[in-house]
Amino acid sequence: MLIRRRPDILPSEITPQEVYRQRRDLMRAGLAGAALLAVPQAFSAKLATVPGPYKLDESATRLKDVTSYNNYYEFGTGKYDPEENAKALKVRPWSVSVEGLCAKPRTFGIEELLKLAPLEERTYRMRCVEGWSMVIPWIGFPVSALLKQVQPLGNAKYVEFVTLADPKVMPGLRLPVLDWPYAEGLRMDEANHPLSILAVGLYGEELLPQNGAPIRLVVPWKYGFKSAKSIVKIRLVEQMPKTAWNVAAPQEYGFYSNVNPNVDHPRWSQATERRIGELTKRKTLMFNGYANEVASLYTGMDLKKFY
Amino acid sequence: MQAPSALRMLSPRQVLAAKIVVFAISLLPLAWWIWGFNRDLLGANPVETITHGTGDWCLRFLLITLAVTPMRKLTGMHWLLRLRRMLGLFAFFYGSLHLTTYLWLDQFFDWNAILKDIVKRPFITLGFAAYILMAPLALTSFDAAIRWLGARNWQRLHRAVYAVAILGVLHFWWLVKRDLTEPIIYAVLLGGLFAARWHYRKT
Ligand code: HEM
Question: Is residue A303 part of a domain?
């Protein structure tokens, strides 16, 4: 499958990594001249990929929408805040510590993670709990590929994903909007499901900070907030971990938070969604359209109870 | 804090000019949405941008309308009163656009879903209450209505604008997911306007 790139960003417009970094540092140093305003939405680096196993015949959301309309509360609660505020995030050096109930806990540098497994293109639907959705051509590798490296123990039942909370670059941390650091969690079988990936890029390039650079979770059959951004720690645990939105409003956001048009949020319906780029609304699909792949994970569970 | 006398005393022609200017400025948000929509400048989710923008301007015009009397007393610019009715009608105008955006671009006139929404979402109920309370004020905003109701009754009726503003702030307060900064700002401004009204109540 080819990555659909919109004609509004030509490969020639993409700024090489080094130039981009220099420019960014320049801007941070306050030396930005007006000429720098002409820098196109710059990506840090291209990523080589192999085709992934999941195809999606829906057109991808525009790159500029994917990189400008974000929920990333550490960088502000407005949708358009992270694009601006997350520029300050330094994504190198970066490491992810994988620990807890496993035989070989250790820390992985980002360069190592980028080479851990073949990077695949995975174009997925993304459904936000607020009622909008996108189609995003992610690049990443299965979560299972990383977990395998540390050899989880038999009593590891859940995986906790802890994200960066750095008050120096994240103005949103000043408000107690959520219980920082933002943490998410999956059941072991959910984390090991082949659809669950750790994404390092989208649209052929490395992730931008507002999308959760340098590495984030993507679990396409769950509401978007489950897919934790800018991960620094992964813990294998026996008890169901605390998750940020569940702690903030337990009656509204459950641990599972599977996309489900039949179970409404207490304050609004989840039956329909607005696909970004479309004016009309469409019906929300069970498990966000991934029922064939994941429904069996939940057989016998009352999904109204385990929302 | 009295304004210079040139600003306190305006000729009828100057008041008319002020009205025209304020009218034109008040249409700028709408002009921006139309322009921005056609040029793809309203962000990834233009319907949301317009829903929020119309709600914001409805509430802002309500607060501006409520600020007229204290401003007038403070500055001695009594002609400001001549702008008040228009400002109030702009609150209703943006409120109507807000409601239309919701009924049309959010719910696509699916009356079942709308009814469910009103019941499910108390903030929508409050918004509706605010709007329904605002409608009779807008509909009696012409001179014949004042004559017909009598100035005293008319004034009593139009005091409901305070209730509309309170409902508007509560509506905003309840719809926010986690970050209450903006509704708190509006609540503080409204509180200040109440305090000013109390302060000037006998003058
Ligand atoms: C007529 C019935 C009304 C309905 C159905 C309604 C509906 C809505 C909806 C759906 C939203 C967006 C909520 C979200 O994105 O989560 C909203 C936001 C808002 N509404 Fe209303 N509303 C109504 C009346 C009003 C009135 C009368 C006012 C002003 C007094 C008002 C002021 C606001 C404000 C300030 C916002 C927030 C905008 C922002 O987030 O910046 N609404 N309303």
Answer: no
List the beta bridge partners of residue A235. Answer: A99, A160
Q: What is the CATH number of the domain that holds A293?
A: 3.90.420.10
User: Total domain count for chain B?
Assistant: 1
ipTM: 0.83
At residue A237, the 3 state secondary structure works out as strand
Residue A34 in domain: no
Q: What is the pTM of this model?
A: 0.84
Tokens of A122: 């995975």
* DSSP 3-state of A10: coil
Shortest CB distance from A280 goes to which of B44, B108, B177? B108
- The domain in which residue B121 lies consists of 5-202
Greatest Cα pair distance in chain B: 58
Domain presence at residue A36: no
Cα distance between residue A14 and residue A124, in whole Å = 24
Tell me which residues of chain A have a C-beta less than 8 Å from any C-beta of chain B. Answer: 61-62, 64-65, 68-69, 73, 77, 79-80, 130, 132, 175, 177-178, 248, 264, 266-269, 271, 274, 276-277, 279-281
For residue A284, give the DSSP letter.
P
Q: Is residue A292 part of a domain?
A: yes
pLDDT digits (tens, 9 = 90+) for A156-214: 999 999 999 999 999 999 988 899 999 999 999 999 999 999 999 999 999 999 999 99
Structural contact between residues B99 and B131, judged by C-beta atoms closer than 8 angstroms: yes
Q: Do A277 and B47 touch (CB under 8 A)?
A: no
Q: How far does the centroid of ligand 1 lie from the alpha carbon of residue B51, in Å?
A: 7
